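Journal club side-thread
Mid-discussion, someone asked how the predicted structure for our own chain would compare to the paper's figures. Pasting it here so we can look after the session.
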Amino acid sequence: MIGEQFISFKEIIEQVYAQNGYTYELPEADLVTWMSDCLELIGHPSQFETRIAGHKDYPPFDITNYRAALPCGFHKLRQIAVDGFAAYPSNHSFHYLMDGDCCGLNEIQANLGDTFADNFNNQFNTSLGTKYKSEPVTYTLNNDFIVLSVKSGKVCMSFLSMVLDDEGFPMIPKDVSYRQAVQWYLTSKLDYIGWRKGEISDKVMAKSEQEWLWFVGSAANKAKMPDENQMANIKNMMLRLKPKINQEDGFYKYLSFREQRKLK
């Protein structure tokens, strides 16, 4: 997998010096910013660190008046649990007014889930059953907060975070495609400055952009390629007589397990 090993940003900067023969000091702060931009542009989950808030030394977040603060280093949400039950993205247009103070929203009665009857007139309801009766917890992300449909409780969260070194600077996946993509991205940024000043020719500028675009595509495609174990998981998910649906309710824990059909 791409994200198994990481190297310091300093190694990448050293390679930029060596690759281009710079004899003057480069703007390190700009290089770090561009490096972060490059990783964001590639954006594959395996280049980030998976973190869990709500376990052992990383306690869950308290919901205060329908809101909980996003954790430090947050990049992208994977899934949320509220008091042990899965929470779901909200489609509610007035989700930020959960106390119903606007236009009588507290008086609206919605039909939660679909109901249907079979040929024997048995009634079924497809809505979720949670500790919040038939209504699941929903959320939206708003700047540095999560806005939830419950006023209080505990939030556990699985999220992606950028890998940082001891100094707080981004680390780069050790894979050669990633290293080359970042090196050429930094080179193209430096060349662009020189090109705007008339110090870099159009040909050199075009070469830098060409190399950057080539290696960023190579890094993205390589990160998407599953290894043997991931391919086995995909096979187990697809080759089933009985499809597994609504696996988000259990946080996808058993999604890739092999199907076992027991015959009595």
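Post-session note: Helices lie at 9-20, 28-42, 176-196, 202-224, 228-238.
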